[in-house]
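Task card 7
Instruction: Convert sequence to structure tokens.
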Amino acid sequence: MLGFALISGLARWRGWPAGLYLALLALWWAALVLLTTPRLGLPQAAEFLGGNVVLWLLLGPLAALVLAYHALLRRLRARALLRVPPQASATAAPPAAPAAAFSDAELTRYARHIFLREIGGPGQKRLKAAKVLVVGAGGLGSPVLLYLAASGVGTIGVIDPDRVEASNLQRQVIHAEDRIGLPKVVSAEQAMRALNPHIAVRPYFQALDETTAADLIAEYDLVLDGTDNFDTRYLVNRVCAALGTPLIAGAITQWEGQLSLWHPASGGPCYECVFPTRPAPGMVPTCAEAGVAAPLPGILGAMMAMEAVKHLTGAGETLRGRLLIQDALYAETRVIAVKRRADCPVCGGH
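Output:
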């Protein structure tokens, strides 16, 4: 029995897959049966292990029945939760969950989401049916893309014109040493598919500009912007406001970051309502110019992904109409209210 306990403990500690765990249990049981068989002629070993092969022969099928019952119970519980609606959002009602069948592998993968009352099966279906565009596969885009993929967002587009460089690896955790020189979108696609093979990834190895932005963004339900230049930031905001597409935008520099959900179509402000004037050139240096603490984009990027999951599933309260400011150097987080401007050239009066 100590052998069974040791295998179970190691499986939990090391996170072994269920198949390996069951195979080791079966091998240990077979070894016990063999060692206690009288024909083997090992009476001392048989006595030490219980002395009776019949007991071990009975224990095997009984344990198999218990494990099968446990697996069946978990599967039935997961399927039942798929039919339970999640808690309604405090800010806006999410779109109706489309019909989306989950494979057994997906039910296992997303079980921790499905068990959450605020997400449940219908919320996970919305994630699977959602199309999300991420602008930038750098510091903020890295955790955003990884967590959207892990969360089960069905279609994820990523657009970025740059290639992976060695200096990126300090903070852009989606990339790796052996992918230096690859387009960032290709590197990101490889990491996302390795993490979750049940999603579709659309890489765009190009810059987002005036000629492509509207047509591309129109294909998606939600946009997450993690770029580090103001031209792209204002362009994305303008196109999203015109199309009525919600936008989650984050920005970081050195030790500080900020993010919000900009969605004037639902009554909130757009980015330009709060930041109507672009900083003069050189006033807000990029990460390459001023540096950035390595975990900071991970903190803000994970928050952006969390806002995306909440918006898509209708869980909790999003940052629509609020701006989150993170000061990592002094471990301070503030959330301030932001409002639409009637004279905003992007969304005012619409």
